[in-house]
């Protein structure tokens, strides 16, 4: 059946099997392979994207359920020449090793910072408990989010001045 | 051209060169690969731990949408494929056959009995689920205890008694003698339970056979693509080695479990050959749980002889290691040479004797998982040393201190074969105790005694042997592989440089650390240097990444190749400057005549002339590249002291890891940011074993924790910030002085966190030992039992 949705600002219409998960649609139909699959049970968070502004695990819904939605994936968050502050934070603070969980971590963190611009360590850890990382022990991931929060606050203060 | 510079890159906490692709979602993992005409494989896996396969009705799915072909064990046999081999042979080792697809018998839940190839992954999985397979279930054994019982069912008919090997090390008579005179004999019976490595990227493979040239291409999630090529070509598939190219692209974590040769890689290669199209398989997580080699699983009884004043006199160990249903690549080495040889720890122990029995069971195969044998040894000795301290009423730190091998005793020959290269254990202990405020923690513990919350402090001093390894030595011990490493340095006419290594990065930051080494040696900007790895078609043979070997062995190979480059560049510089080679110095990024600083040539000048060869030494080959192979003289021996602090809620038994401090010594750090990151992740994995993770099986061999819903790994709110310090004791025998750091965190932290929990329970309730993982229920029950019937009595 047909599904039409917007991903990273571009509108796509595709004919999909009704059972196609959103994550497989993003990866296989659209070729946006930055969104990863790490489990079958919606525990790992590697597939986290933004759907109408909210962070969702794209393995938990069907592509057809995203009909008409506005989706942002890691590829739409920032580019090498124009990184999102979270991407910069993860880079600066060594918040990644193998990189596989990283897109999901960054997308989940972006939602946190949208609602909680200056999160405490506990708030960051609590918010990210739906995302597994097996490499970093989360130490530098937490620091990366703190780094980004600081940068975004600095930027918004500068904009206010 | 780039401006030359002389900054010292080695030792700088540079952010990683590889990160831009990962943070923007443009990494390239195996499952991201698409080849024209690609089809998909789905595995049909045994639901039984042990069963005869009595029939497979391939017709039952042949008309399903998209189905191209069903493969069975018969196809594997018809193709003449060999058994997947074991890479480390012990004397009298029994090695049951391990076919790519089981033909007559499935030996663990998840063993592959058939494969469906279909146009799409969903179609392949639909048909795999629908395929009619008839089984006769057989009795199964899941534990070493069950497998060794009288009359136990045999996993394999050709492994009598389910015993794959008996192995021992040390001096039994001397150990018996040491125990005779000992004032105290501390005894423990413990289980080091089974784990699943769980890199977040599931394994995946994509094969393409090109009939015209008879060429095979395999993309696969591997820590060591050359080993895969060698095994597949020479032992399993009978493909000429030069006709198989194995590419291990970005790999999402390994932790040991992506070292081994698996069935699925053989299957996609065979399937691609049979149907003439590229074939991809990507594991679902639930498949990974029953097909990735698992870790640990020891049942051990041990005894430590100590004097009344805390001097360790002797140590004896009897371990039963559960190997699972088949022996994968390093399986026999892990509970023997990577375990028994580490039982000396950091102490002067006059006599040690260890026996290990390798036991086959109807469970997923067990092989190297981060640390591989060393965490098991460290847990055992550090646990029993703590028990000794408790029994003797000594501070665990002081008991350790008085038994340390002293700095002037290196190289140190242990009673269990190893010769430690260098070490200085006391400064690391002191630094860790100071960093964590150890004395204050003990006061706090005393104050909290009897309260709702109690405190435990786990201190361990550890050592590990890594940087695998001298080839001749491991060959004597049974390895069917060399353990040197290669590096190729290629300087282009424009002065840009490519480095090639046989090591592989799946998160370790090679693409930054290796160029840091090269930028210093070549005295050029790091931006002009790129590391290439993971492709048998591009780099010289190498043995890959495991055993914390990349920096010590691969980095050393790189250093030697770089020295060949600069030596040749000096010759060219001497010619261009019309000077003697002995008068040329390489400083400040240029080659110049000593004492005549205005007469110099840049790196670019010489790189270009090496390629133009217009004005060139007559007796020198043109071009500028060099290959080096480095075989280490010994293992390297990183060490340190880690301290874990836990709080236990006595009402619920919940254990919270409140603080963690590590002081590590891995020699000079190439990149402190990367090294500390390795420790953070390693510590989290080790604490996962102590508090959360367990691959539990029922007695019929069913894995009870088969998804992330049942298998608990540390999440962000389970782990505190890790406090980190380091001391620097270089290895005396490799050109960089570096030791390994990839596994140290895991080797140390399981023991540290376990000791912290037991320290709390000992001080609170006199409980000498409990087995991990310390789940709330287990801790609550133990406290309840120890205090009588009222778990909350102490709070009154």
UniProtKB/TrEMBL annotation, chain A:
Q: Which UniProt keywords apply?
A: 2Fe-2S, Iron, Iron-sulfur, Metal-binding, Oxidoreductase
Q: State the InterPro entries in the record.
A: 2Fe-2S-bd, 2Fe-2S-bd_dom_sf, 2Fe-2S_ferredoxin-like_sf, 2Fe-2S_ferredoxin-type, Beta-grasp_dom_sf, Diverse_Oxidoreductases
Entry-linked CDD domains? fer2 (cd00207)
- Give the matching Pfam families: Fer2, Fer2_2
User: Which PROSITE patterns would you find in this protein's record?
Assistant: 2FE2S_FER_2
Residues of the 2Fe-2S ferredoxin-type domain = 1-77
Q: Name one GO molecular function term.
A: metal ion binding
Could you tell me which PANTHER family the record lists for this protein?
OXIDOREDUCTASE WITH IRON-SULFUR SUBUNIT (PTHR44379)
Name under which the protein is recorded: 2Fe-2S iron-sulfur cluster binding domain-containing protein
Instruction: Please give the organism.
Output: Deinococcus xianganensis
């Amino acid at each position: 059946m047909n599904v039409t949705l917007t991903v990273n600002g571009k509108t796509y219409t595709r004919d999909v099997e009704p059972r196609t998960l959103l994550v497989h649609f993003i990866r296989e139909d659209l070729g946006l392979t930055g969104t990863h699959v790490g489990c079958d049970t919606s525990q790992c968070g590697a597939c986290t994207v933004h759907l109408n502004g909210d962070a969702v695990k794209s393995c938990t819904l069907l592509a057809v359920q995203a009909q008409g939605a506005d989706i942002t994936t890691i590829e739409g968050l920032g580019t090498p020449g124009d990184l999102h502050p979270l991407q910069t934070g993860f880079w600066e603070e060594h918040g990644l090793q193998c990189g596989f969980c990283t897109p999901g971590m960054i997308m989940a963190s972006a939602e946190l910072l949208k609602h909680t611009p200056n999160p405490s360590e506990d708030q960051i850890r609590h918010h990210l408990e739906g995302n597994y990382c097996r490499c970093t022990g989360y130490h530098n991931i937490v620091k990366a989010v703190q780094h980004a929060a600081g940068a975004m606050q600095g930027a918004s203060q500068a904009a206010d001045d | 051209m780039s401006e030359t510079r002389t900054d010292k890159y080695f030792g700088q906490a540079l952010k990683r060169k590889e990160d831009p692709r990962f943070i923007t979602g443009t990494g390239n993992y195996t499952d991201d690969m698409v080849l024209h005409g690609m089809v998909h494989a789905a595995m049909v896996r045994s639901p039984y731990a042990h069963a005869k396969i009595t029939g497979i009705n391939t017709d039952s799915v042949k008309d399903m949408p998209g189905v191209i072909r069903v493969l069975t064990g018969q196809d594997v046999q018809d193709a003449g494929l060999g058994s997947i081999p074991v890479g480390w042979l012990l004397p009298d080792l029994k090695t049951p056959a391990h076919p790519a697809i089981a033909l007559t018998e499935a030996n663990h839940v998840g063993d592959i009995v058939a494969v469906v190839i279909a146009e799409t992954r969903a179609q392949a999985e639909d048909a795999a689920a629908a395929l009619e397979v008839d089984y006769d279930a057989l009795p199964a054994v899941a534990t070493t205890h069950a497998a060794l019982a009288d009359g136990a069912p045999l996993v394999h008919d050709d492994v009598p008694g389910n015993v794959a090997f008996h192995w021992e090390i040390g001096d039994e008579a001397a150990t018996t003698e040491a125990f005779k005179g000992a004032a105290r004999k501390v005894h423990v019976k413990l289980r080091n339970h089974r784990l699943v490595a769980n890199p977040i990227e599931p394994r995946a493979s994509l094969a393409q056979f090109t009939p015209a040239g008879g060429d095979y291409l395999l993309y696969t999630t591997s820590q060591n693509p050359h080993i895969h090529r060698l095994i597949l070509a020479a032992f399993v598939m009978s493909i000429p080695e030069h006709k198989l190219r194995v590419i291990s692209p970005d790999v999402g974590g390994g932790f040991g479990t992506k070292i081994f040769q698996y069935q699925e890689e053989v299957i996609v290669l065979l399937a691609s050959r049979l149907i003439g199209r590229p074939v991809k398989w990507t594991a679902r997580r639930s498949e990974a749980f029953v097909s990735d080699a698992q870790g640990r699983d020891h049942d051990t009884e041990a005894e430590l002889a100590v004097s009344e004043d805390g001097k360790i006199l002797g140590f004896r160990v009897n371990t039963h290691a559960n190997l699972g249903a088949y022996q994968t690549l390093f399986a026999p080495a892990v509970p023997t040479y990577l375990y028994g040889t580490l039982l000396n720890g950091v102490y002067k122990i006059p006599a040690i004797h260890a026996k290990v029995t390798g036991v086959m069971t109807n469970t997923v195969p067990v092989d190297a998982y981060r640390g591989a044998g060393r965490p098991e040894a460290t847990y055992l000795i550090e646990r029993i040393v703590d028990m000794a301290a408790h029994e003797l009423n000594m501070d665990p730190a002081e008991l350790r201190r008085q038994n340390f091998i002293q700095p002037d005793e290196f190289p140190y020959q242990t009673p269990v074969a190893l010769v430690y290269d260098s070490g200085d254990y006391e400064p690391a202990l002191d630094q860790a105790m100071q960093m964590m405020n150890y004395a204050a923690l003990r006061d706090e513990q005393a104050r909290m005694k009897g309260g709702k919350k109690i405190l435990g402090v786990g201190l361990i001093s550890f050592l590990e042997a890594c940087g695998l390894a001298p080839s001749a030595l491991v060959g004597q011990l049974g390895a069917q592989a060399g353990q040197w490493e290669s590096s190729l340095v290629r300087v282009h006419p424009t002065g840009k440089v490519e480095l090639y290594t046989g090591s592989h990065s799946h998160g370790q930051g090679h693409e930054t650390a290796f160029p840091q080494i090269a930028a210093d040696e070549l005295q050029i900007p790091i931006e002009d240097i790129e590391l290439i790895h993971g492709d048998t078609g591009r780099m010289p043979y190498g043995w890959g990444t495991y055993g914390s070997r990349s920096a010590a062995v691969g980095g050393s190979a790189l250093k030697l190749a770089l020295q060949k480059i600069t030596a040749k560049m000096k010759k060219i510089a001497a010619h261009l400057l019309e000077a003697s080679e002995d008068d040329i110095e390489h400083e400040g990024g240029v080659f110049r005549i000593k004492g005549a600083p205005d007469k110099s040539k840049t790196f670019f000048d010489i790189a270009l002339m090496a390629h133009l060869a217009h004005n060139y030494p007559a007796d020198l080959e043109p071009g500028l590249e060099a290959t080096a192979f480095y075989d280490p003289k010994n293992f390297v021996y990183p060490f340190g002291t880690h301290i874990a602090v836990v709080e236990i809620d006595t009402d619920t038994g919940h254990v919270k890891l409140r603080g963690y401090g590590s002081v590590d010594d891995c020699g000079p750090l190439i990149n402190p940011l990367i090294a500390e990151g390795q420790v953070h992740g390693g510590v989290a994995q080790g604490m996962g074993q102590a508090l959360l993770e367990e691959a539990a099986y029922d007695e019929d061999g069913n894995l009870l924790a088969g998804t992330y819903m049942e298998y608990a790994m540390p999440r962000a709110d389970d782990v505190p910030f890790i406090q980190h310090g380091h001391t620097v004791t270089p290895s005396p025998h490799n050109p960089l002085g570096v030791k390994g750091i990839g596994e140290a965190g895991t080797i140390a932290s399981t023991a540290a966190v376990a000791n912290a929990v037991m320290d709390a329970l000992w001080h609170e309730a006199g409980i000498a030992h409990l087995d991990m993982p310390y789940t709330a229920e287990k801790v609550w029950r133990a406290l309840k039992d120890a205090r009588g019937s009222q778990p909350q009595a102490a709070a009154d």
